[in-house]
Amino acid sequence: MAGRDTFQLRFAAVAASAAVLVFLISGEVAEASRMMNICSHTAYPSLCRPLVKRISNPRKATHRTIQALEVQTRLALTEAALFKDGNNAIATCYSTLSDAVFNLASARKSIRKRDVMGMNTFLTAAVSDYGTCVDAFIETKQVNTVQNKAVDLRKIGSNCLTLSTLIS
């Protein structure tokens, strides 16, 4: 009888260990799935994934993306400042990128206050600012690095808006 009890006890321990292992693995798979899924909702997942590494919370992912977008917008603004004199398209971009920096800072403050509607308003304004910049180049039939950056910023801004819709 003691042998059977020992066997049952060992069997129960192995079964419990297996259950815990399956639970842990499924949790990691679910976490990886959520990370992949959070960017799969966006129009440009390849631009989303590097910005939200290891983040599955939509609020945190949106905040991280806003921060990255703000940094990249400031870099584009610095470049536009170098060439704005004598080039109307770049001067327009300089102005709209300045507006975008303000809108992104306001969006970041809104997300901290959990004001999703306010955040979406500011993000929409920033995406519009990038679009105005791109349109200035299209109208003048110019292509340069400032325009290329504005196109990427508009895509990331669009992703950011999509991520913000996942916040509950």
Weakly predicted, low-confidence segments: 27-35
Helical percentage? over 70%
The chain-level structural class is: mainly alpha
Number of E strands: 0
What percent strand?
Answer: under 5%
What's the total helix number? 6
- CATH homologous superfamily placement: Invertase/pectin methylesterase inhibitor family protein
CATH architecture: Up-down Bundle
CATH C-level category? Mainly Alpha
Mind summarizing the main beta sheet? none
The CATH topology is: Butyryl-CoA Dehydrogenase, subunit A, domain 3
- H-E order: HHHHHH
N-C termini distance: 57 Å
Shape summary: elongated
- What value does the average pLDDT take? 86
Number of domains: 1
- Rounded radius of gyration (Å): 24 Å
InterPro entries: Invertase/methylesterase_inhib, Pectinesterase_inhib_dom
Protein name: Pectinesterase inhibitor domain-containing protein
Pfam families: PMEI
Domain Pectinesterase inhibitor: 30-163
